[in-house]
Amino acid sequence: MNSAIIVAAGKGKRMNKDINKQYIKLMDKEIIYYTISAFDNNTNINEIIVVISKDEEEYFKSNILNKYKFSKNIKIAYGGKERQDSVYNGLKLLSDNSEIVLIHDGARPFISDNIINDVIRETKDKKAVVVGVPVKDTIKIVDENEYVKDTPHRNLLWSVQTPQSFHVNIIKEAYNNAYKDNYYGTDDSMIVERYGYKVKMLFGSYENIKITTGEDLYIGEEILRRR
Ligand SMILES: Nc1ccn([C@@H]2O[C@H](COP(=O)(O)OP(=O)(O)OP(=O)(O)O)[C@@H](O)[C@H]2O)c(=O)n1
Ligand SMILES: C[C@](O)(CO)[C@H](O)COP(=O)(O)O
């Protein structure tokens, strides 16, 4: 059984709007509608858990769940302070027979069916899989005074996206260890890497952007227009 955990419990501070960015509309539907639909329409996903802010539960139910009538049963978990805490709460709701879990940002609405299928297929064998794209810019590491300290070789640098996909036993063990060690990472792969697992990188898509700041909204609408 393949599960999806969609994390949508952030505050969207960098978007600087008075509404949680997942509920901003692109064209005529909310960002979170597109994200959930991608997994709801995928025939290899059997379970969907959406992690939302507890204080947005009524809003989510009336404006998303009850409005769009998704075909799969959508389980709800509550978010935590950090993205990792939200993921952890989602992991706790996984069905006992879930074997693979894809963890995906609610703010990445343009995930394609093909990438979801590729990730599931690759995870069966590689056990830990992420998607990303090679960086296009040269990346600099700067010091605390914002002077350039180092320039890693660009050919080794990828910008990682989601879904990040794992055998359930691996991600659960890694997360349990992270909380024992009070370790926090900015993505799920970091946690699995820390506990010694090799993570396979798959090419994602330059359209699989994370809606984070204002300009991502019009970029996102253009992506939708071209579909
Ligand atoms: N405590 C948190 C923080 C983030 N997220 C989710 O993780 C995804 C990626 O996080 P990000 O883009 O940083 O979202 P926010 O944390 O909401 O954005 P900001 O940092 O601008 O506040 C988003 O879909 C967000 O809703 C979450 O579920 N729980
Ligand atoms: C998980 C992620 O989308 C991979 O790029 C990213 O780390 C999320 O970071 P955020 O600060 O929670 O948006």
Automatic annotation (TrEMBL):
<dbReference type="InterPro" id="IPR029044">
    <property type="entry name" value="Nucleotide-diphossugar_trans"/>
</dbReference>
<keyword id="KW-0414">Isoprene biosynthesis</keyword>
<dbReference type="InterPro" id="IPR018294">
    <property type="entry name" value="ISPD_synthase_CS"/>
</dbReference>
<comment type="similarity">
    <text>Belongs to the IspD/TarI cytidylyltransferase family. IspD subfamily.</text>
</comment>
<feature type="site" description="Transition state stabilizer">
    <location>
        <position position="21"/>
    </location>
</feature>
<dbReference type="InterPro" id="IPR034683">
    <property type="entry name" value="IspD/TarI"/>
</dbReference>
<keyword id="KW-0808">Transferase</keyword>
<protein>
    <recommendedName>
        <fullName>2-C-methyl-D-erythritol 4-phosphate cytidylyltransferase</fullName>
        <ecNumber>2.7.7.60</ecNumber>
    </recommendedName>
</protein>
<dbReference type="GO" id="GO:0050518">
    <property type="term" value="F:2-C-methyl-D-erythritol 4-phosphate cytidylyltransferase activity"/>
</dbReference>
<feature type="site" description="Transition state stabilizer">
    <location>
        <position position="14"/>
    </location>
</feature>
<keyword id="KW-0548">Nucleotidyltransferase</keyword>
<comment type="pathway">
    <text>Isoprenoid biosynthesis; isopentenyl diphosphate biosynthesis via DXP pathway; isopentenyl diphosphate from 1-deoxy-D-xylulose 5-phosphate: step 2/6.</text>
</comment>
<feature type="site" description="Positions MEP for the nucleophilic attack">
    <location>
        <position position="210"/>
    </location>
</feature>
<dbReference type="Pfam" id="PF01128">
    <property type="entry name" value="IspD"/>
</dbReference>
<feature type="site" description="Positions MEP for the nucleophilic attack">
    <location>
        <position position="154"/>
    </location>
</feature>
<dbReference type="InterPro" id="IPR050088">
    <property type="entry name" value="IspD/TarI_cytidylyltransf_bact"/>
</dbReference>
<dbReference type="InterPro" id="IPR001228">
    <property type="entry name" value="IspD"/>
</dbReference>
<comment type="function">
    <text>Catalyzes the formation of 4-diphosphocytidyl-2-C-methyl-D-erythritol from CTP and 2-C-methyl-D-erythritol 4-phosphate (MEP).</text>
</comment>
<dbReference type="GO" id="GO:0019288">
    <property type="term" value="P:isopentenyl diphosphate biosynthetic process, methylerythritol 4-phosphate pathway"/>
</dbReference>
